[in-house]
Design goal:
This protein has 317 residues and is α/β, with parallel strands linked by helices. It folds into two domains: 10-149 and 197-237, Nucleoside Triphosphate Pyrophosphohydrolase, CATH 3.90.79.10; 152-190 and 239-311, Rossmann fold (3-Layer(aba) Sandwich). 22% of the residues lie in helices and 27% in strands. The chain is built from eight helices and 16 strands. The chain has helices at residues 63-75, 135-147, 158-162, 173-184, 187-190, 268-277, 291-299, 307-311; strands at 10-13, 16-19, 24-31, 34-40, 50-51, 54-56, 82-91, 96-104, 117-124, 152-157, 192-193, 233-237, 240-245, 259-263, 283-287, 303-305. Strand 1 (10-13) and strand 2 form a beta hairpin. It is elongated, with a radius of gyration of 22 Å. It starts with 9 loop residues before the first strand and ends in a 6-residue tail after the last helix. Mean pLDDT is 87; it is low at 209-226.
Length: 317
């Protein structure tokens, strides 16, 4: 049978045989306490198991785009009903698999849209282990499940960030803060790397040992003697952004979407700490160059990023 796409095909290497010449990606859609699983048709690789909608990425296609395209093709998942949360990558050097985690922002009914699925089901998180899982999902599920309740909360000390560059902000603090808020909206589309957020070494799941001579796995890794098997690691995170404003900058307008503006009644530093304390259980990042505030937020378990590191991620004014 002729492959549907030049990227369709097996890749062979020292750790096994994998599907997708450009790698593969799958979508873990989370709605309240349920996740969307796909029951794989019997003739498919590891047929009869439950896995994530997904498949081979196209040549030159990003992992997120690949996962969203495949989930739309296989399960009619609407892209505009999702809010990206994170990606984790199993990288073997010659092949990779990316798990894209997304929150459902608008309920939808998945539909079996091609021949690769026999059923689609919203499965309660605490019952996923009861299903016969695709080996790749079985290996990664414990790590994925542990992170489902976590979000990256990015708290921006607006006065410190705006004041970090001499662009005339002192003549119009509210205007300069408005421009910063406009630029921060880009993070809802691009996200940040896990390393930038202080999460660069977070493992999301374990390795998969495959029995048999072929060591053929789709979405997992065949463990080989004499070396440690790679495991999926957190790669990119899409933050919930809170911007703390004070003084004259409190006149800025609210923003729609995932950008929250907190107007400090008194000290902006105190307001930043209060925001962190309200975000228990989340991964916390504070953007500031203020030494005293940095010490306070580190005591709350936050990672500190300097304003220049944030501004370098954002589009120009």
């Amino acid at each position: 049978m002729t492959p549907r796409d030049p990227a369709d095909g097996w890749v062979d290497g020292p750790r096994g045989r994998f599907w997708g010449r450009a790698g593969a990606a799958g979508l873990l859609a989370v709605h309240d306490d349920r996740v969307l699983l796909q029951h794989r048709v019997g003739w498919s690789h590891f047929g009869g198991t439950w896995g994530l909608p997904g498949g081979a990425r196209g040549l030159g296609e990003g992992a997120v785009d690949g996962a969203l395209r495949e989930s739309a093709e296989e399960a009619a998942v609407p892209r505009d009903a999702l809010r990206l949360v994170s990606t984790s990558v199993l990288d073997l050097g010659y092949w990779s698999y990316t798990t894209v985690v997304a929150r459902v922002t608008r309920p939808f009914d998945p539909v079996v849209s091609d021949a690769e699925s026999t059923a689609l089901e919203w499965v309660p998180v605490d019952r996923v282990d009861a299903s016969p899982l695709h080996p790749g999902l079985a290996a990664s599920w414990p790590g994925l499940r542990d992170r489902l309740g976590r979000r990256l909360r990015l708290v921006v000390d607006a006065a410190n960030v705006v004041g970090s560059r001499p662009d005339g902000w002192w003549r119009d603090r509210a205007g300069a803060t408005d421009r910063l808020l406009d630029r921060l909206g880009a993070l809802s589309a691009s996200g940040v790397t896990a390393r930038w957020a202080g999460l660069g070494d977070v493992e999301v799941g374990g390795a998969l040992t495959v029995s048999g001579d072929s060591g053929t796995v789709e979405g997992g890794v065949a463990e080989v003697p004499g070396g440690d098997a790679p495991v999926p690691r957190l790669d990119r995170v899409w933050p919930d952004v809170t911007v703390v404003v004070e003084g004259r900058a409190r006149d800025v307008a609210d923003r729609e979407g995932d950008l929250e503006v907190v107007r400090a009644a008194g000290s902006g530093d105190d307001a930043v700490v209060e925001v962190l304390r309200a975000g228990g259980g989340d991964d916390l990042v504070v953007v500031t160059a203020d030494r005293e505030l940095g010490e306070r937020v580190r005591a709350e378990g936050a990672h500190v990023v300097r304003p220049s590191a944030l501004l370098d991620l954002l589009p120009a004014d």
